[in-house]
Amino acid sequence: NSEISDLKAQLRKLAADVLSGEVGRSEAAVVNQILNTRARLIELERKIREQEELKTRLEALEEVLKTRTTG
Questions:
Q1: How does pLDDT run across 25-55, given as a tens digit for each residue?
Q2: Is 57 exposed, middle or buried (0-12, 13-18, 19+ CB in 10 A)?
Q3: φ, ψ at 24 (rounded to 5°)
Q4: Most Cβ neighbours (<10 Å): which of 23, 52, 59, 63?
């Protein structure tokens, strides 16, 4: 996923910037919290997609069973 790759790259850069002194620790902590929030949203979107796919598959299976028992 490109969003995950982007987050990883941002975290690597943030770590390097903190180590080099380019970014302060307090600023880095805030940025890290924001990146963590984005990561949780990506995971939430994945779970929602997965649930929607499972619901669609279950409905299809229920329809097959319905036609077999009434057909």
A1: 999 999 999 999 999 999 999 999 999 999 9
A2: exposed
A3: -75, 160
A4: 23
User: Nearest to residue 42, comparing CAs of 9, 3, 11?
Assistant: 3
CA gap 45, 29 in Å, rounded: 24
pTM exceeds 0.85: no
Amino acid at position 51, single letter = Q
Q: Is the pLDDT of residue 71 over 90?
A: no
Question: Rounded to an integer, what distance in angstroms lies between the CA atom of residue 17 and that of residue 63?
Answer: 56
User: Would you say the C-alpha torsion 22, 26, 29, 30 has a positive or negative sign?
Assistant: negative
b/e sequence 8-39, b meaning 16+ C-beta within 10 Å: eeeeeebeeebeeeebeeeebeebeeebeeee
* Average pLDDT score over the chain: 96
